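User: tokens in, sequence out, please.
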């Protein structure tokens, strides 16, 4: 029978999930990264969150800078609480002790302070300075081992901070229980922060790089969605029912409504009606079957206006709690932050109707494009398992043309239903059309139909007259 290790919850959003449940109580970790990577904010956030839970943290520095300068910088962050200084979170500088008396005196001082404060978390900021003071690697090992043993004896977790990446074969790496590496690097013209757990003794941490950000709230980590949700969080079930699309005539095209818990892709050029079809879908939201609009293009104000023009009362749906709108400006986004924001909103309200207006918004947020298939696989699997009926939209680049660019053949195969909207020129007149290309495990209407707008918004009308090339928007006469 396996034994679960006691954990120290870090209070850093997302970090505990990456660590497999938090820091192991009484274990020691190296937190390393170049200057500006975020080590100090990470460690201080964990210290103050530890204090919020009624425990005490001891922050030992080997740095020459004063604590006042550190407090001044931390004062801009929400987690910092000056009333806890000296009570729950205690800062001790051992710079002079190291300089005058050496490493053994530092160890003795740390032991005394841990006992005096009753600390359950020790942050040791300046491991590189300790290495510089040591004469041999054996001295380094002895110092780390003594600090570890003193802390572990009383169940105190240790974070060693160092501003340089220590080689994996170094004595410190071999002795500690975990190594957390922080990166702050350029990707193209944007800066990207990443975290990697390079060592996690006895626990299953999520491997690879995980994005994080630092805001006025402090640090937030966004575990890679495909790593965290390699398997769905709840068991999946085969769909049994159907969900109305809200668009007159469309349900008949897809065999009696969209399969419950399915993911549909509606793609077409700008102005073809993708968002309008989505608005109709959301218009059927209720308090018992709530909906979410997760968009990248229109602001909520403009979207409410657009819905009103189609005869749909978004204001009323929002007021009674049936509908929520989350807008993500198409600026600098983080892929996993978007994924977690979406899934958190779905779980929080038990969303059953979801419109993702602009699947390309996720692609624009990806720093590493080749992972998009794995990301969408995890995201759509989780939405299906949560029994969310989802419509996503994809914008075709060209208004007319012989080629249709779907979001990658592998991504298209992850989706249950494919619907194409088009402008078709016939006899010097443009017509909007809808084509159902795929409905998983169900018969559907394969004939292209015209679409238009009536009092209830978008509606499917008669079958398009027989022409060749309608799917490309370039009709060439009777088929």
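Assistant: Sequence out:
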């Amino acid at each position: 029978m396996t034994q679960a290790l006691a954990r120290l919850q870090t209070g850093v959003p997302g970090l505990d999930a990456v660590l497999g449940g938090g820091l192991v109580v009484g274990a020691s970790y190296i937190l390393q990264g170049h200057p500006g990577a975020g080590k100090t904010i990470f460690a201080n956030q964990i210290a103050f969150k530890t204090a919020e839970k009624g425990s005490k943290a001891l922050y030992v520095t080997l740095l020459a800078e004063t604590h006042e300068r550190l407090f001044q910088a931390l004062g801009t962050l929400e987690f910092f609480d000056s009333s806890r200084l000296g009570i729950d979170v205690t800062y001790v500088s051992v710079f002079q002790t190291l300089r005058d008396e050496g490493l053994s005196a530092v160890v003795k001082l740390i032991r005394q302070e841990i006992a005096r404060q009753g600390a359950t978390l020790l942050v040791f900021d300046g491991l590189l300075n300790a290495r510089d003071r040591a004469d041999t690697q054996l001295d380094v090992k002895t110092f780390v081992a003594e600090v570890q043993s003193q802390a572990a004896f009383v169940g105190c977790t240790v974070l060693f901070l160092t501003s340089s990446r220590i080689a994996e074969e170094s004595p410190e790496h071999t002795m500690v229980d975990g190594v957390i590496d922080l990166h702050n690097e350029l990707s193209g013209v944007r800066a990207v922060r990443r975290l990697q757990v390079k060592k996690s003794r006895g626990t299953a941490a999520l491997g690879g790089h995980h994005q994080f950000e630092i805001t006025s709230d402090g640090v937030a980590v966004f575990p890679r969605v495909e790593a965290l949700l390699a398997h769905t969080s709840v068991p999946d079930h085969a769909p049994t029912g159907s969900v109305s699309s809200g668009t007159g005539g469309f349900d008949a095209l897809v065999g009696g409504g969209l399969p419950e818990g399915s993911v549909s892709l509606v793609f077409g050029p700008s102005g073809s009606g993708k968002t309008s079809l989505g608005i109709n879908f959301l218009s059927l939201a209720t308090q018992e079957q709530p909906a979410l609009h997760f968009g990248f293009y229109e602001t909520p104000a403009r979207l409410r206006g657009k819905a009103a023009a189609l005869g749909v009362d978004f204001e009323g749906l929002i007021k009674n709690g049936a509908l929520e709108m989350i807008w993500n400006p198409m600026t600098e986004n983080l892929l996993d932050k978007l994924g977690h924001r979406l899934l958190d909103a779905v779980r929080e309200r038990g969303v059953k109707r979801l419109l993702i207006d602009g699947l390309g918004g996720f692609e624009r947020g990806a720093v590493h494009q080749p992972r998009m298939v794995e990301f969408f696989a995890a995201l759509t699997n989780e939405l299906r398992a949560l029994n969310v009926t989802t419509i996503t939209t994809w914008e075709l680049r060209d208004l007319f043309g012989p080629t249709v660019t779907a979001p990658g053949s592998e991504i298209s195969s992850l989706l249950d239903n494919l619907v194409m909207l088009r402008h078709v020129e016939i006899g010097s007149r443009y017509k909007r059309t809808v084509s159902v290309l795929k409905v998983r495990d169900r018969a559907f209407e394969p004939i292209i139909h015209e679409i238009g707008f009536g009092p209830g918004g978008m509606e499917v009308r008669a079958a398009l007259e027989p022409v060749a090339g309608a799917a490309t928007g370039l009709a060439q006469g009777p088929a």
